[in-house]
Amino acid sequence: MAQLFFRYGAMASGKSIEIIKVAHNYETQGRKVLLLTNALDDRSGVGTVTSRIGMQRPARAVSSTDNIFDLVKNSESIAAVLIDEAQFLTKEQVLQLTQVVDELHIPTLAFGLKNDAFNNLFPGSEALLIYADKIEEMKTLCSFCDRKAVMNLRFVDGKPVYEGEQIQIGGDEAYMPVCRMHYNHPDLEALARRSGK
Ligand SMILES: [Zn+2]
């Protein structure tokens, strides 16, 4: 029976590499997957799933107005739907994913972040936590210690920030996966030593 999966994890927990792996597994069996990512702006089109270790694949970039159910329905012989950056889906799009699973019987795997840099659920993640059949955490370590990273600390110009827009596009920001303790108390000296400053 087809199911809707939500696999969430902090930054750098291997979500994109897992998608590329799952897609590869289907394709070696001669089965077709529909690979989606988020356009983040209003232009749907060609996007990429990019992993930090350098592997990447083209994917269809969906914008918030795209109907994913229609997209899948109009594609031929799709064996699975794989979605990167699923945190940016709208609630309506997550409901469309449940239709893909329940009406078209196509397994659907959504990968994304759970909470934003200020520890609020992303809309897509909130809906997926409610509607997914299976929820799995992808684990990675804190950037500063051996605890599990459960939050994403945003840095702007090398400094941690605790307020701002949920989605910052085109800014000069970076993120680090961190445990709760290091979210509130990042070891900035260790960071400076690492970057050689
Ligand atoms: Zn830590």
How would you describe this structure to a colleague?
The chain is 27% helix and 28% strand. It has 197 residues and is of the alpha/beta class. It has 2 domains: 134 residues, P-loop containing nucleotide triphosphate hydrolases (Rossmann fold, 3-Layer(aba) Sandwich); 44 residues, no CATH class. A 7-stranded mixed β-sheet has the order 3-4-2-5-6-1-7, with helices on both faces. A 3-stranded antiparallel β-sheet has the order 9-8-10. A hairpin with a 5-residue loop joins strand 3 and strand 4. The chain is elongated and about 55 Å long. It starts with a strand and ends with a helix. The site of zinc ion (ZN) has 8 residues, from helix 5. Zinc ion binds next to helix 5. Its EC number is 2.7.1.21. One of its GO terms (cellular component) is cytosol. It is found in: Cytoplasm.
Helix content: 25-40%
**First and last CA, distance:** 54 Å
Total count of helical runs of at least 4 residues: 6
From the spread of the alpha carbons, the general shape counts as: elongated
Mean pLDDT: 92
| Spatial order of the strands forming the largest sheet | 3-4-2-5-6-1-7
Which cofactors or ions or other ligands sit in this model?
zinc ion
Order of helices and strands, N to C? Answer: EHEEEHEHEHEEEEHH
Which homologous superfamily in CATH is the superfamily of the largest domain?
P-loop containing nucleotide triphosphate hydrolases
User: What fraction of residues sit in β-strands?
Assistant: 25-35%
Structural class: alpha/beta
Number of strands: 10
CATH topology value of the largest domain: Rossmann fold
Uncertain segments of ≥5 residues (pLDDT<50)? none
**Number of discrete domains:** 2
Please outline the major beta sheet: 7 strands, mixed
Question: Which architecture of the largest domain per CATH?
Answer: 3-Layer(aba) Sandwich
Radius of gyration: 17 Å
CATH level 1 class label of the largest domain: Alpha Beta
Active site: 85 (proton acceptor)
Pfam families: TK (PF00265)
EC number: 2.7.1.21
Subunit structure: Homotetramer.
